[in-house]
Design a protein that fits this description.
Layout (H helix, E strand, L loop, with lengths): L1 H21 L4 H25 L1 H23 L2
Length: about 80
C-alpha cells in the first residue's frame, strides 16, 4: 500500500510538472492535465477505500450503530 501511495504521488508530481510546462502555451492541454491529476487522485482514493473496505466498512457501521440512539434523542422520536 505504501508503494502504491508513492507511485501515485510520483505520477501526480510528473503531471504537475507537465502541466506547468504547458500552462503558458495552451489552456486546453492544461485542462487535460488538471483532469488527469484529478482522475489519478480519485482513482487512488477509490482503490484505497476498496482495498481497506474490510477495515473501513465495519467501523462506519459501528459508528452508525452507536450514533443512532443519540440521533433519535436529538430528533425527539
Amino acid at each position: 500500500m505504501i508503494r502504491l501511495l508513492i507511485v501515485l504521488a510520483v505520477i501526480v508530481i510528473i503531471l504537475f510538472i507537465l502541466r506547468s510546462r504547458t500552462k503558458y502555451s495552451s489552456s486546453r492541454s492544461s485542462k487535460l492535465y488538471r483532469n488527469l491529476i484529478l482522475l489519478v487522485v480519485v482513482a487512488g482514493l477509490l482503490f484505497f477505500l476498496a482495498t481497506s473496505g474490510k477495515f473501513l466498512i465495519p467501523q462506519v457501521l459501528n459508528l452508525i450503530k452507536i450514533g443512532l440512539p443519540f440521533l433519535t434523542k436529538l430528533i425527539g422520536i
